[in-house]
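Standup notes, protein team

Yesterday: finished cleaning the Conchiformibius kuhniae set.
Today: Probable RNA 2'-phosphotransferase structure.
Blockers: none.

Input for Probable RNA 2'-phosphotransferase:
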Amino acid sequence: MPPLAKKARNVPDCAPDGQMMDDTQISKFLSYVLRHRPDSIGLTPDTQGWVQVADLLRLAAAHGRVFSEARLRGVVANNDKQRFTLQGGRIRAAQGHSAPQIAIAHRVCEPPPVLFHGTVARFLPAIRAQGLRAGTRHHVHLSDDYDMAVKVGQRRGKAVVLRVDAAAMRSAGYVFYRADNGVWLADGVPPDFLKDFP
């Protein structure tokens, strides 16, 4: 990240170039540091992904991302996907981690019979062959809401929604987890449990 610009000092809610950060920019910054690269600003989360809010604000400011605790709490409260969890003076990303030091002990839950996964057509050949794999993240993300799966898929183009036979997976011994924000998680989904390929 670029060094802190002089004009950004003591200016609330600004980026390294001194420009105001909007809620989306703050949310993207939080996703980056809390899910993937806490080390990029010197944060050290515990194994459950928690960091002290005061540490996050201090280290973010030292790297040119200046915003108040009130603004942080507003971004967290108004995030449509509830990507972050605040607990007392601590914060973490609810799910989506790739940082190796974070291994959240998500609660094991009985899933509904059917879950959904939003993707795009260009990934379908690999999904048909290998199923859904976590890739660089710790888990595959699934939804019990078809419309939410559409929104997830649309981030990368025209959405394709696959149906996951969660009941059959559970019968076969697979485990499902539930993140703080309600997102369903699995270690992977073999192709035999995927339906509705176009």
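Follow-up from PR in the comments: Residues 23-36 form the longest helix (14 residues).
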